[in-house]
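User: Show me an example of a complex going from sequences to structure tokens.

Assistant: Sure. Here are the input components:
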Amino acid sequence: MTSAPATPAITPAPKPAPNARFEFLLRLGDDRLVLGHRLAEWCGHGPILEEDIALSNVALDLLGQATMFLRLAGQAEGQGRDEDALAFFREALDFRNCQLAELPKGDFAFTIARQFLFDVYAVVTLDALSRSRDAEVAAVAAKSLKEAKYHVRHSGEWVLKLGDGTADSHARIQRAFDALWRYTPELFAADAIDAAMRDAGVGPDLPALRESWTALVRDVVHRATLTLPHDAPPIAGRNGRTGAHTEHLGHMLAEMQIVARSHPGATW
Amino acid sequence: MVAGGLTGRATRDAVLAVLDAVMDPEVPVLSVRELGIVRDVGIDDAGAVTVTVTPTYSGCPAIQVIEQDILSALGQAGYRASVVTTYAPAWTTDWIEPAARAKLKAYGIAPPGVREDDGGLVQLMRRRAAVQCPYCDSYETEIRSEFGSTACKSVCWCRACRQPFEEFKAI
């Protein structure tokens, strides 16, 4: 007596391991692309001419850095996407920037506070990345670090001027730090991608960098006669690194991507 | 004039001579070689020239123009050329030689000073060495903004001759 042939077990096809290097490079590139675009919104609207030029200069550096990181990301993905394809033909869900970068630019104090928090983050992370075992990442990071040091001096000096300035400037930048602080834990919340890159000697140990970041930020904020909120509970659940964004990113991308999408492949 | 019949060394020198005449579009008194943008020139057996360049700043919008200018100058000189970009080592103003610094000053741009030792990750409110005014040589100057008309320049003011001027930032 023969039994019915056993139904072959349905084994789901193994999920392809996420391309950690691709994801890692997207995070670095998208932070700079999105924040660079937010800064560029000041072009023609700066409070004084020098600041208009300075914010646009910093925006340009960030877009240049984004170009380099996204180019490497496209190569890591291996699907033929270049930096422009990644910048202009992805949806908000596919962006991997921190939420801090995508918030609307607000007033000048808000822009400066956000920029300072990011610039210090950029300096501590790029410094670590400049010693990456990945030669391409190390080269881009070393170049970007030189620029980031100019950026942090610019935003840091403005934190001092606004904090230790008039009652109005003090109140405005204090309000900005109060509103922004809860977006900062995300910067150091390492997940499996970060762990894989750290173990490979490519990426930094993000949680370990948080202490030096906090010390640098606190020093300037206190000298500016400002205070930081006591705690910053991390954003619950998914964050920008895994594609969860505030409502603001989609609106920003609509404006940023419209020309490239309306005229794909156009040159001038 | 095709590279084929020449010796490697002579050909490389000839290519470098062509590049000496390619000026930076933003600072047209300096050639792309004097600025340190050209990092290497390679010539293969078939005479094809590869010029390796590095951007000054990541977002410098002039780099595409510079690449086009290099290709067009070499093309007009009869070379088949291509340009590749490198990021390591990162560009530094240390590569601008004294003769080129003198040209900058004569053009009205204060040449880059000595690159400061970082001495820490974040240095705020640093006390920089005074920038010398390219017009009257006074050190009675102040920096108005570290970000100027191009990524590579800061905006300064001379209290002695009461003139604004630009400084090539040390990086």
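The lines above are the inputs; the final block is the predicted structure for all two components together. Chain A has a mean pLDDT of 92.
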